Structures are given as C-alpha cells and as structure tokens.
Amino acid sequence: MPYTAINLGCRPWNLSLTSVIILALSNMLLTFLLLQSETCVPEIIPRKMVEVSAVTEWNLGNLVKQQQEQLPECITQDYQPMSPDANSLRLDIKLGRWDARRIFRTFDSVLVGSKFTELSQTYRVCLATQSSVEKLHSLVQVALHWTGPMSVALYAAGDEEFEVLQRYLVYLRRCYESIRERVIFSLAVPRMRPPKKQPRVFELPDIIDCAKPEATLNELASHISSEQTNWRIRNVYPQNHMRNLARKNCQTDYVFLTDVDIVPSFNLSVALDEFLRSDNCDKCAYVIPTYELDTRMRFPQNKTELIRLARKGLARPFHQKVFIHNQFATNFTRWLQDVSPTHKYHENVKTGKVYVSHDVTNFEFLYEPFYVAKDIAPSHDERFMGYGYTRNTQVYEMYVTGYQFKVLSPVFTGHWGLQTRKSRPAWRERQNSANRKQFETFKKEVFARYMRDPLKMMKNAN
C-alpha cells in the first residue's frame, strides 16, 4: 500500500493542489457557459415566479437575493444588451400637444416597451396609470403583477425633476424586464415650469441595486433643490390630465384605469382577458374591489388569503376609515360571500376564474371605483386638478349616460397602508374645496348634455 501511494504521487499536498486546479478550471468553464448561454434569461422575476410569489417593496430584496444565488452572472451584468440611447425619451421638449386651457403640454409614446405593441394585439385590456416623479417606484410591483400591456403617464416640472425622471427610467428599464418590455411611457409638463433642456442619454454605474427601487429613487430625488420642492407643493398635480393621457396611449379595446400605487392581484391580466373575450356590453364598467393592506404583510396570493387578512384586521376596504363613501357602493359584504364553500360560485374562488359577483345597486355620487371598461367612456374633466372630485365626477357622468357597474370576483387590487384621517395632509382638503366649486358648473353641464338627473343633483344646484 505505501509503494502504490509513492508511485501515484498521492501525497496530501499534491492532492490539494490538483483539486484546486481542477476546481478553478471548472469554475472558469461554467462562468463562460453562463455568460454565453441563451438560457441565462435577463429577467429578475420570471413570469412563472410572479404568479406564485408575493413581491412587495418590503420583501423584494429577499426575492432578488434568492435569484442572485441561483443565477449570479445573470443578475450582476446588464440584463439585456441595449444601445446607449435605448432609454432616452423620444421628444422635442419645445413641442407637445396643449390641453384645452393651454396649462399643460403632453407628449405621447415617448418611450415604448419592446413588446408593448405585440402585447396590445394579444390582450384585450391595457392597464393605464399615472405618476409624479416621487411615486414612480410603485410601478415596480404593479409591473411585476400585471403581465399585459401598460400605459404610464409621467409628470415632470422643471429641469431638475426632468433629469431625475430620465435617470430613474434608465434604472427601471435596466433592472426590470417587465417594465422594459410591457410599458409605454408618455409625458406631461406644466406651462408655468416646463423643462428647458432636451432629453439626453444618461448612464448608470455598472453595478446597481435592483432590490431597492424606492431607495434608489429617493437618492436621485435628494438632489432636487428645496426651491423646486416648494414650487411643487404650491402647485397642484393634474390628475385628470394624466389619466386621460395614460388611457389614450393604450392600444386595446378595454382599459383598466388605476393610480400608480394600486397593485393588481396576481394573474389579474390573464383572468380579465379571458373574461372579456365573452363580453358584449358597451356600457358596462367592471369594478375591481380595492383593499388597504397592512405593510407588515406580504401581498395576498388570492381572495381567500385576502379575506383571511381582513378578518385579522390586517386588510380592509379602501378608504373605509378615511372616507367610506369612496368604495361603499361596491358592497363588500356581498363580495365576501363566495369565499364560503357552500356558495354556488365558490369553485371560481378556488380556480381564479373571473365572473360578475353582483351589480352595483346603491350607486352614489361620491363613488370612486377602479374599473375596467371599453375605451369609449367619458374622459376625465380636466378642470378638476389635485385631490377631490377628480375620479368621482367621471364615474358620475358614466352613470348619468347609462353605464352599469358590475363587481367582479375573485380578482382584486391592493393599496399598501391602513389609512387614517390623521395621516392625510391639510392641503388635500384645500384642493378638495376648490374642486367642489368647479362641480357646481360641471353638474349643470352634464345635465344639459344628457338631459338626465338620476341622482337628483340639480335640486341642489345654486
């Protein structure tokens, strides 16, 4: 036995050196194969993973960490080869389309996802949403949940915000395949403070933390001057301009109009698409119930899990404590019934198949549902800016024209945070009061246009 060991050279130090050399060569070969392999998909969150995993801004870091352990080379390099100007906005800042009062200029389709056109031909519904610069990080989770086409209207005032917006769009498109492929962006700027510098190419460092979209945006925004920030506080955000802009850049028959911090339930785009293929109602608005979610929880996988959270006080109907009339007509009590195993549509809850749970029978003026409808509904009146009377006036006009509101199940949307009145800033009420005055003229115009007054609003006309 000793003779054999000497002839083979199996000394401990020789064996260790040989093992190190073999291991190093193996690692080099595997690294080369990973970099060259077509199976190294440039996507942080694959679609199949989105459908089974909860991804929120509170657990996104853990999920990306798991992906890094599985595909280290895919995560650390640029996820998809792109030309230097692939993320630059396509527009001339001195041009643009004016609104009716020449207060804002808008630019359509300034940045188009690589698969947006294809998806718009495949799906029947497009998610339309809008955002100011400081809230744009919320788009990450929305895009991870929604697998169909998305139209996002962006707002930027002045060169400082415009630069932050451009830099952050580079970050979003480099980090998230869902945004790079599915989203079309449009832009609105104010006449009082338009950007003066033309769009340009911005590069980010080779290593960027894709697990922290909010922190990354906050870091970029921290360089905005206090003078610019104060200007934004004094000037209202044109919500209805933005909603119209996002909606009209969708290319599908149906539009699901939301706010950027409203997160769709898993698989909502696919389930909705299947439901709408058998729809033949021109004046139907399909309501997607919305719940507030405790930020300590993960996003519920399905309706059953959502109701479980609600029973523990960790979820509740949107605005229930702040302004109950906002969603009250949805009738959440009735919407909960199919969770029971004895309900005739309980199987839909188990399978996720969308159906009409019930009709809205107690419509009221202050109702503000998030809904899906054909893109022939009345536009949002752009006289209403900021907060208050922005969404409910459009829904009211739909009701006057004869729209039926139908609540869908088992799909839903979520909004992070259990809201209270104390958490609402005072400037919201000031904007609400200003819009209340605009409504007096608006309701008279709606009556004159349709000669209908189903809610007897004209009795209260001044």
UniProtKB/TrEMBL annotation:
InterPro entries: B4GAT1. The keyword Thylakoid does not apply. It comes from Lasius platythorax. Its main location: Golgi. It catalyses: 3-O-[beta-D-Xyl-(1->4)-Rib-ol-P-Rib-ol-P-3-beta-D-GalNAc-(1->3)-beta-D-GlcNAc-(1->4)-(O-6-P-alpha-D-Man)]-Thr-[protein] + UDP-alpha-D-glucuronate = 3-O-[beta-D-GlcA-(1->3)-beta-D-Xyl-(1->4)-Rib-ol-P-Rib-ol-P-3-beta-D-GalNAc-(1->3)-beta-D-GlcNAc-(1->4)-(O-6-P-alpha-D-Man)]-Thr-[protein] + UDP + H(+). The chain crosses the membrane at residues 12-35. This is Beta-1,4-glucuronyltransferase 1. It is a single-pass type II membrane protein. One of its GO terms (molecular function) is metal ion binding. Pathway: Protein modification; protein glycosylation.
